[in-house]
Predict the 3D structure of the following.
Amino acid sequence: MPIDKFFSINPYTQEIIYEHPAHTSREISLALYRAEKSFISWKTNKNRFNLLEKLASVLQQRKKALSECITLEMGKLISEAEAEVEKSIQICKYYAQHGEKFLQPENIHSARIKAQIYYQPTGCVLGIMPWNFPVWQTMRYAIPTLCAGNVTILKLAPNTFECANLLENIFREAEFPEGTFQSLRIDVEQIEQIVASPIVSGVTLTGSSRAGKAVAQLAGKYLKKTVLELGGSDGFLVDASADIALAAKVGAQSRLINAGQSCIAAKRFIVHQDVFEIFIELFIKHLTDVKIGNPLENTTTLAPLARPDLCQNIRHQFEASSCVSDVEILLRPHSEKNFFTPAVLSGKNITQTIAFKEETFGPLAVVVKASSMEEMIDLANQTIYGLGCTIFTNPEHVDKWLSRASDFQVGQISFNALLRSDWELPFGGIKQSGYGKELGIAGMREFLNLQSITF
């Protein structure tokens, strides 16, 4: 039976804060009509780069309201919500400054051929985005898409539909033409109506591997291009030569960011045996130095998980993993309502646990001991995912690790710093973490037609 209303529930108070009527099939058809109509003029609109600058300005003006909405709907710390909006402002400025240059034709001149490659927009891109970074995830696909001359329809996660409404109003206030950026409040069953439309040229999804497979299957049915940014179980490697105090601090930060609800958060800590004990001591010290509470208060350092079922799932992963023989509980969690405090598991058979094999979307870390670079790389690759990896080592040893970069089955590697997505760099993984790229030049060109013309 179709859903006729969606609810946003505050993860901290567990109260309903917003109610949103679902869009009907007719309203979806109207949105597709507006997208098709707007694409005709938007694809050649040279003012779109200036509009991105204006969008950045309006986002800055609405930063407080948008940040508070993020925290109220999905529960993250207000400081993290503010950082998310600020990052979204910066991506607007980046593509406003560089987008036109990225779209310039490429000249191919050789002894045997003379040609040009043109980058042409293809239509409307459907963005299916998650709740964990509702604004940044939306902007990191939508801004390159719009800059390239495509238009977009957003389907954000239902528990963050008010964020979607605010974003649509912000685009309108920035004077983006009607139909260029639209948000629909729909359930998964209604997605096929959009994908099937001739104006829709592609689908980009950030979500679970299961959702990615479903979208890829649907897009394949209608021969639509897809970009899938899916789950991750990133390795965090600590070499014997590393600054252990810094590694422990950044490792804890990576595990706790967004209450652990991040695809590129470090989840599996692979530590050289020579520094294992000192790393564990410092790591746990940072993990326990948290204050749970209202995420709108600046004194709170650990926010609730976004939904009760997420808390139940991470609790199940902990309990199932801690029951495996020769697995040690180094830090036992406490869970109540939507809160789940940090937990750490280690031991001889930790690699056999679901906490090591599955994505843990919450502050649960597994720590494994390794004796060599070879073993560390092997352990890092023992996952179905391939999103990112962090390596802490002496700066003088970076080249040694860099020479082995191709052995890591991941889309990105960070040395001696927190792994983040950045608007200047292509972002995306391999294996069950998906395919295709967001951000940078590569992300902007994913939904463009590369038209070759010879002379």
User: Anything to note?
Assistant: The radius of gyration is 23 Å. The longest helix spans residues 78-102. The longest strand covers residues 114-121.
